Batch of 2 targets.
Target 1
Amino acid sequence: MLREIAEMLQFEFMQRALIAGVIVGFICPLIGIFLVVRRLSLIAEALSHVSLSGVATGLFLQKEWGWLVGIHPVYVGMLFSVIGSLFVEKMRKLYHSYQELALPILLSGGMGIGVVLISAAGGFNADVAGYLFGSIVAVKEEQLTTVAMIGIMVSLFVFVFYKQLFSLSFDEENAILTGIPHRVVNLVFIVMVGLVISSAIQVVGILLVSSLITLPVAVSLQIANSFRQAIIYAIIFAEIAVLIGFFAAYSLNLASGGAIVLVSVLIWLMVVMFKRIRLIFNRKGFRRE
Amino acid sequence: MSQPAIRLEDVSFAYEKEKVLEDISLTVDRGEFLGIIGPNGSGKSTLVKLILHLLKPQKGKIEVFGESIEFLKDRSVIGYVSQKANTFQRGFPATVREVVASGLYGKLGLFRWMRKQDWEKVDQAIEQVGLTSLAHRNMGKLSGGQQQRAFIARALVSDPQLLILDEPTVGVDAKSQEQLYELLTHLHQQKQLTLLLVTHDIYSILSVVDRMACLNKRLLFYGTIDEFAKHDQEILSQLFGEGHGTLSITLSKGQKQLV
Ligand SMILES: Nc1ncnc2c1ncn2[C@@H]1O[C@H](COP(=O)(O)OP(=O)(O)OP(=O)(O)O)[C@@H](O)[C@H]1O
Ligand SMILES: [Mg+2]
């Protein structure tokens, strides 16, 4: 086992893949927790579909008109994701009491544009599959640099704005009242969400990205008492999923994105079951007393 | 220094077409304890939100501590416990301590972290409302009354000079309610805190407030409780409609307390 891992890490592309995976496993739950507690986790899903339309646009422009040839379609996806996130924030303000209303529109719109442009650009091939399901081993050095930069930016943002993000998530009205600069923080936050999603896409793919953002948080909410714990547990679970999923994918020759998400689901199942069993035992003890 | 805590001058407000508040003028002195009563939908919460600048009046002026509310820089002089405070998500992963600390975040600003003395303030506020033993408990695992007290602690932690509570006793049992009024009276006397309390609970507040405001779109009565007690039947029937039997009964109990 250890030898296998050592052998695998001799390859440079594997090292890159692992680093990208660890970074993404850190920032996804870090941003995800705020989305989940604000009941906006569907944003991740919607923005990933918007990214799909961006990636498809990139592919299409390259194929048809030879535009953007030097530019990786992932960056077009990133651009779309950020623009999409600004749209979400605008809509969130517009429909104050139905904040999630913008999301189905974005989700289906993004999917529609994506599918149309992909078929126009030559249909579904291995490349496209890579974007949909993630191809962590295809991460180039330049992309890794981008992922790392986004990782640093997002971590810094959450670190510096932790107080503001907590207040806005727990009680937006009270946060505004106490003078928290809510417009700026909300805007920067949503742009960060867009960036996280477009970088996570390279690891787990468009279809699975929202699960890496929400699943570890779902597990951590089962057991966390405080907000601090919730963040730490979510990151730990995400990293476990990334590492196990990554090595499993390599040694069993599976798709890495799928493996990572499957491990997350398994962790979730285990924690839920553990909680139930503990509850049953506690109650038994209670009866005996 | 003798500026009043709150001054409203001819304030009118409408959410849509219909006016919800009309020509409200009132002055609350520093250190005063004001009770606001009125039937459902009479505009009590709206009035509070106007004072907090969560809503902007179409007409009239609102001043807090002598400054027009739009330009009030230090927001932490006002503490607020909303009517909806305990409708927060039960599953939210936060302890009492974390929630109370968030009352300081606006005052701390962007680049300052919680220091030791800030956490001491948090623990003091928690102690004031009697939740010390539950400080590290998850908010969702508290009872309704305990949650309400946690929100009061969050409002108190930034050392406000004015505390506004919108129906804090809804869903709170009689004993906790009594404790709450004791706490408010204590804060009022010890810290010279100006208090504004919205409630349906006319009977219990008569013994704690200094003045009373009766609201139903317009300000029907505004004065000391002695004045209120003189004209109570008139005011209440005007406020709640003629022949409101139950209310006159509760009020006569209140009067007994007053004498
Ligand atoms: N967001 C809103 N949009 C439109 N109308 C509103 C809104 N909030 C309140 N209203 C209306 O304004 C009026 C006053 O409401 P308000 O919440 O101030 O009443 P209240 O005195 O606090 O009532 P309660 O005792 O039930 O809390 C009501 O007629 C209500 O229908
Ligand atoms: Mg109200």
Target 2
Amino acid sequence: MTRMAATRDGYGQALLDLADNEKVVVLEADLGKSTKSLHFRKAYPDRTISCGIGEQNMLLVGAGLAASGYIPFASTFAIFTERAFEQMRNGVARPNLAVHLCGSHGGTHTGTDGSSAQSIEDLAVFRTLPNVVVMHPCDDVSTRSLTMQLPDLGKPSYMRTARNKTPVLYDGREDEIQIGKGIVLREGEDVAIIACGVLVSESLKAADALAKEGINAAVVDMHTLKPIDGELIDSLVAQCGALVTAEDHNVIGGLGSAVAEHIVANSFAPLEMVGVPDRFGESGQADEMLEVMGISAPYIANAAKEAIARK
Amino acid sequence: MPKTITELEEIARKCRVEIVKMVHRAQAGHPGGSLSEIDLLAALYATRMRVRSDEPDWPDRDRFILSKGHASPGMYAILAEMGFISHEDLKSYRILGGVCQGHVDMKWCPGVDFSAGSLGMGLSFGMGCASAARLDKSDRRAFVMIGDGEMQEGSVWEAAMAAAHHELGNLKVILDRNRIQNDDFCEEQMRMFDIPAKWKAFGWNVKEIDGHNMNEIMEGLDFLEAPENCNGPSILIAHTIKGGGISYMENNPSFHGAAPNDEQFHQAMIELGEVEA
Ligand SMILES: Cc1ncc(C[n+]2csc(CCOP(=O)(O)OP(=O)(O)O)c2C)c(N)n1
Ligand SMILES: [Mg+2]
């Protein structure tokens, strides 16, 4: 049986792993139980700063800490990081202060809380900020690895994690995970599916279904959206000649856009983007939401065929 | 519209039953803040709100904004009691396509005046509604319910300052002071020191009551409506118990956002007098 886990648990674990570094501090905005920073808070209360329900304050407290030699990790729901967007822009990104922001419960997959909690634009907005590295890993192992690399990054970052459990793909493969480097999970020649977050395992399912129809689809985990791994995209274009992107995020501005921005300026191939069709979510179970939004495995498989047809 | 205290208490009891049923059925949701607010909502809707359940969009209605939009089961329960939605609709709480979305949503549910769920937004929206009423030369009011944790959002204070500056006497806030937020007690997460003094310093009329005592709630609502308090915005600070009415939920931070299991559900129904022990 595949192990199932939530990426937010990988984040919580990584904070504990990083605690030996005395410069690491954790900032919370009354959602530590949910983002999983609570484990760090319990073990290191002196290095945890509660900002109450005040995301805007939290981001700039982080900036002040970073400017004073600390390595702040701040987290809240992905949707509420957006409330502090301008703080992140002017107070963090502009002076290039290494505040590491984690937004949990990202995407429509977050489920029955409904549209107010389902961020579908976080990856897009943070991607527009100079200096900011943007990540959206697909399992707890890679989330932990990526988080543990952040103290050496030297610039700000935004990482989206998810609320619900998804299949673990990287048990024992921690060393393969590197910020900025996409990972080929499955080789294929007919089409390449580039995915992030909860849609990586959906893309693997889609590739299985396509294989039954004689279509060989490559599947890539593009856990870092910015900087995007252009070299890998170029090689996928050369090898497959058709691309699909898959993300639990508005089809505008996220992974699909990042890939499109790269290929229009480099090696061109037809691209089909699977993403939330520019609408808000609603209450529903995680798997129901992927259906309602048209981003589950069958939709990804269909998009793959459409991309191939456009070759 | 006049209702006896006993009648109001019975409305609130029935709403408590629905709240617990909703979160139990969904196995998700926010019982704690729904139970703490419900006596206030029951009295407000049953005796003060000038609204029409058969015409929920009536332009000249009073507005009610549940700024702590996660406490939606409480709002849905009173909306059902008042006839805005059916008791059957309550079964759609957190269900795909349901009228009763996880957080109150004006696009989905009749009688809901603001799509909430992100804390700290409702008071500003209420100020907009109150300003529109003034521009329309209407005597309708905007009531806003906020949480104590929610009060930590800076935007609450932007709105508080602005509403007093503009002397919006038709803007009335009820603070559900249940002393608990998401992760823990407010005292642990972010101390707020002298809350009545803060609002007074911002230029508001302030009264404190026990938010589970129907007599005091009625006096509090009288205070909000009193002509001498319509010179500017007013706030009722209601001291409440998070999870109030269900013994094991009371003052228990873990029932902010968790549902009872079957056994706990049964016990709640006994405590609410729905089934015999
Ligand atoms: C802007 C924002 N930040 C964080 C949250 C997550 N959240 C939902 S409820 C809650 C605690 C609210 O506490 P309080 O206002 O006291 O509500 P109550 O106790 O009445 O349930 C938090 C932090 C949110 N909904 N909105
Ligand atoms: Mg509270």
